[in-house]
Amino acid sequence: xxxxxxxxxxxxxxxxxxxxxxxxxxxxxxxxxxxxxxxxxxxxxxxxxxxxxxxxxxxxxxxxxxxxxxxxxxxxxxxxxxxxxxxxxxxxxxxxxxxxxxxxxxxxxxxxxxxxxxxxxxxxxxxxxxxxxxxxxxxxxxxxxxxxxxxxxxxxxxxxxxxxxxxxxxxxxxxxxxxxxxxxxxxxxxxxxxxxxxxxxxxxxxxxxxxxxxxxxxxxxxxxxxxxxxxxxxxxxxxxxxxxxxxxxxxxxxxxxxxxxxxxxxxxxxxxxxxxxxxxxxxxxxxxxxxxxxxxxxxxxxxxxxxxxxxxxxxxxxxxxxxxxxxxxxxxxxxxxxxxxxxxxxxxxxxxxxxxxxxxxxxxxxxxxxxxxxxxxxxxxxxxxxxxxxxxxxxxxxxxxxxxxxxxxxxxxxxxxxxxxxxxxxxxxxx
Amino acid sequence: xxxxxxxxxxxxxxxxxxxxxxxxxxxxxxxxxxxxxxxxxxxxxxxxxxxxxxxxxxxxxxxxxxxxxxxxxxxxxxxxxxxxxxxxxxxxxxxxxxxxxxxxxxxxxxxxxxxxxxxxxxxxxxxxxxxxxxxxxxxxxxxxxxxxxxxxxxxxxxxxxxxxxxxxxxxxxxxxxxxxxxxxxxxxxxxxxxxxxxxxxxxxxxxxxxxxxxxxxxxxxxxxxxxxxxxxxxxxxxxxxxxxxxxxxxxxxxxxxxxxxxxxxxxxxxxxxxxxxxxxxxxxxxxxxxxxxxx
Lengths: 431, 295
What we know:
The complex is a heterodimer of chains A (431) and B (295).
Chain A: H1 2-22, E1 34-41, H2 48-67, E2 76-83, H3 87-99, E3 105-108, H4 112-125, E4 128-131, E5 147-149, H5 154-172, E6 183-188, H6 191-207, E7 211-217, H7 225-234, E8 238-242, H8 245-258, E9 264-268, H9 275-281, E10 289-291, H10 304-321, H11 327-344, H12 352-360, E11 377-379, E12 389-392, E13 399-403, E14 406-411
Parallel strand pairs in A: 1-2, 1-3, 3-4, 4-5, 6-7, 6-8, 8-9, 9-10
Antiparallel strand pairs in A: 10-13, 11-12, 13-14
Chain B: H1 2-33, H2 40-58, H3 62-85, H4 93-115, E1 130-133, E2 136-139, H5 140-162, H6 164-174, H7 176-181, H8 186-208, H9 218-233, H10 238-258, H11 264-278
Antiparallel strand pairs in B: 1-2
Helix pairs in contact in B: 1-5, 1-8, 1-9, 1-10, 2-3, 2-4, 2-8, 2-9, 3-8, 5-6, 5-8, 6-8, 9-10, 9-11, 10-11
């Protein structure tokens, strides 16, 4: 009996270890007819939800490519996966994929700290890092020629926030002059939030606006009373906020509890934009404006091939995940598809230099990708920022709004599908 | 300003009550068994998922679910004690550290595997109710959790002080070998202690679901604070855990507002360091701080 018990205990602990490292999966066997791409995503840890949804989207891209003949003369694309729940794991997994698996291109990664870690390794090793949307500006400003990012950097979110206040919010509040509005910002204090707020500050300076609150907070705080009380004290008309999910929900619930009211709330992803946010907050989510990776935009602005791909992806994703793809899933699909279809299919071979050359040759207008983005990468040719290389100059951040549980794109007008509502927001007793 | 401070102190007390309920189970287990349970946060997470599923599948209100989650947590605690904890007691300290850490990783990843990383909100049950007391406002779910925390702490203290089992338990804390010579079934004391500690964190899990969304790593954000509280209150001191919880809640709330919201955890850990330096036995702990329930 004792031996059995001991055995069970060992099985138990063995399982624990297996579960801890299981997400990585066995290394793929290298074959002549394969094009191998490293896939680094947070499959476990606090960002697992995003990592797993991104993986579903990227797998759909891979399957579409393989079904239509693969790349470079019929090679089937294989993803060699690494689990990167945190920056330390990101560094070690990137090194592992490069040194042991001999990867020439790494696809990923989700959050800013992960993208920063992987890009540092890729830059050092001379391997292409094909980033979807991890926001930190530094990722493409290292002076390295090996990094490419499809989505906009975080500062663009901040700049777009104030532009949206000027174009969409201020007219509705009957205030032609931005300086007459009390605007403030509340941001989670890790690289993502700190990066977006840099953009807000820079744009505020250009526009001559004073920020009446500029407060960073810890996204893992369990008690958000001090945070919300500070916003309440600042007596703002417009709050620009950057949050993950848990903090977004806690802050909104606490705002209701403490009756902290602002006339307009603009939130940069990821938290406020998730479907779960609207499920949790119910009607109270209506009217909150979102700056997120584009998800549901006006398809009229897409090129025919992109519109076809858009429908194919949305249908398959819905079947696999059980819900519509959020912006991060759409961006993941299109980033992977861009790499496999437009870069690898036209590259001479699978070396990092071949991939880089093919990427730099891309020059497509807005509407080329399924989320409305075009593609043209910077390459040490930006007068304002000569070190910038590999940033897609034709990705933008649309402004949308929660309307009855759905994102409705409002701005820029080219991708808009509806009109703004609930500006100013109703007071808490009417939500 | 005074009003804002009063609101912050009130909110701090309420969240502190929640911390305390989590910490009481942890300190009870430590005080009696001398083990640190690194899977305590995952026990919280498991109870939160149970409450979530009872609502999602059967439409149960979280306060109704307590009737099932509490005994289920107790049984789960018994099972874990039999399968994992019992065989690591009396071995080098690292064995139990790795055993409970392994359990923590297993549970976190099992939750991730079964239910993905999605955030699962539980609605209703006072989570969206605000009670207004003059100019002060408070969340209904947190008021209930805090009140239950105080009530349960007093019940646990009474259980330890006035029942035969409680006396046996305290005897075990004082000297395990002598307790055994006196005919106390120490293995049973350990089993029940671990199960009660798990039931308490299960209760906390069910009670906080209306206020906090459920996801696989939710335990981490609470349990770190719980460790601080256990040390602050005095390792093994039940009353210390309650006072320590409220103390940390208020410190976090006030320093967050008055100094910097981004640093609120820093101050909890500063208090933690100060206690280790100036009063290593904790606020209510004894030296050695082992007399569970006696303080």
